[in-house]
Description:
The chain has one domain (2-349): Di-copper center containing domain from catechol oxidase (di-copper center containing domain from catechol oxidase, Orthogonal Bundle). Helix 1 (2-12) packs antiparallel against helix 2 (18-24). The strands form four sheets. It has a two-stranded parallel sheet. The chain has a two-stranded antiparallel sheet with strand order 2-3. The protein has a two-stranded antiparallel ribbon with strand order 4-5. The chain has ten helices and eight strands. It is mainly α. It has helices spanning 2-12, 18-24, 44-59, 72-83, 93-112, 190-197, 202-221, 236-253, 256-259, 334-337; strands at residues 34-36, 146-147, 152-153, 163-165, 171-174, 322-323, 332-333, 347-349. It binds 2-acetamido-2-deoxy-beta-D-glucopyranose (5 copies) and copper (II) ion. One 2-acetamido-2-deoxy-beta-D-glucopyranose (NAG) binds next to loops.
Amino acid sequence: MLFKSLVILAAASSVLAAPLMERQSNASTCTDPDLRRAWHTLKDSEKKAYIDAELCLMSKPAAHGLRGARTLFDEMQSVHVLQSEIAHWVGQFFPFHRLYLRAHEYLLQTECGYEGAHPYWAEHLDAGAFSNATIFSAENGFGGNGVGDLLCVEDGPFANYTNPLGPGYKVSDHCIERRFADRVSRGSSAAVVEACMAKTNFLEFWNCVEMTSHGAGHGGVGAQMTNPISSPGDPIFYMHHAWLDRIWAKWQEEDPSVRMTEMGGNNRPRLGMAMPGAGGNPFGSGPPTPGLGSMEDMIRPDDVPAPAIIGDPGNVTTLNHLITMYGILPNRTISEVMNTKGSYLCYEYD
Ligand SMILES: *[C@@H]1O[C@H](CO)[C@@H](O)[C@H](O)[C@H]1NC(C)=O
Ligand SMILES: *[C@@H]1O[C@H](CO)[C@@H](O)[C@H](O)[C@H]1NC(C)=O
Ligand SMILES: *[C@@H]1O[C@H](CO)[C@@H](O)[C@H](O)[C@H]1NC(C)=O
Ligand SMILES: *[C@@H]1O[C@H](CO)[C@@H](O)[C@H](O)[C@H]1NC(C)=O
Ligand SMILES: *[C@@H]1O[C@H](CO)[C@@H](O)[C@H](O)[C@H]1NC(C)=O
Ligand SMILES: [Cu+2]
């Protein structure tokens, strides 16, 4: 059924080039998908392999000329900064971040010899108590809470990393910043995920997850993770978004003949939605929170080009919508990332 609908999709599209159609018409090429597993189920040696590969990305010089980046790790963050204006509260929220995670995994594997698949953080297990989560262990994890006025993470493997991007569009050196908010992290609960999983169409499902689980993960970690533009400066970002990608993949699997091709939504966020707190003013009147920054940092400066929207006939996101990783991976259409076990992506979640 899925195979059939992909064939029809490819055949019906006049935009896709012939080689692409061929790849798309062959949904059976993913015979041995990589297994993306929950962080807490990994052996210590597997955790170490992932962390070491991330440290390797942090040590390798930038190679794609992306704004403000010194290392490959920064370049991943830069992609997010450059696309953030059209990557949240839009139809491509899920597909963009799916390809983004693949780009991260691809760099870990090809540049840093990582042999595993991208892990994810089973956040519901830590809902309400992020500050106690094993993923933030200093020994076998991402380090703990930020300390001092600057909220710097001073333990664990990433303690001394100088991050050159953020808050927001700003290019400025700072540490990795965190400020756990256990109360906010309650929104990562299994019950909340289940409520979104029960939605029967993509628009409701996407809005539900972005509003609840997505926001709770960012807000529960706090500081740098609360900035919708520069948040991937905290390496926990990728573990959070893998969790969200898993939720989408599991939802798709519940009705693949419909959900593997179900897309929609606006290409640009409704006014104000892309701001942290979605509506309220999170910036307050005192000095800016490290990592979150100020309202001013959220306004795209002149040296950052407005991201292009390519592939859709109108303002509604379609399967032909082009996703860009600025050359870290080739551009892909949304249709190419709809199926995690298709002709392009080849992974599944446990
Ligand atoms: C499609 O899949 C079959 C079987 O796995 C393989 O032999 C064939 O080369 C694939 N075709 C393309 C265009 O990838
Ligand atoms: C974290 O763990 C400690 C020790 O088990 C416990 O006392 C504390 O209540 C936990 N914090 C939260 C927010 O659950
Ligand atoms: C960070 O720097 C301090 C002081 O130079 C050093 O003691 C510590 O081992 C470093 N930590 C890491 C994870 O590199
Ligand atoms: C898309 O949105 C813009 C700005 O809101 C509007 O000017 C334009 O008419 C819309 N185009 C279509 C095809 O709806
Ligand atoms: C990739 O997409 C971007 C826009 O998102 C576009 O500017 C760029 O030219 C594309 N690159 C290629 C090689 O098609
Ligand atoms: Cu994002």
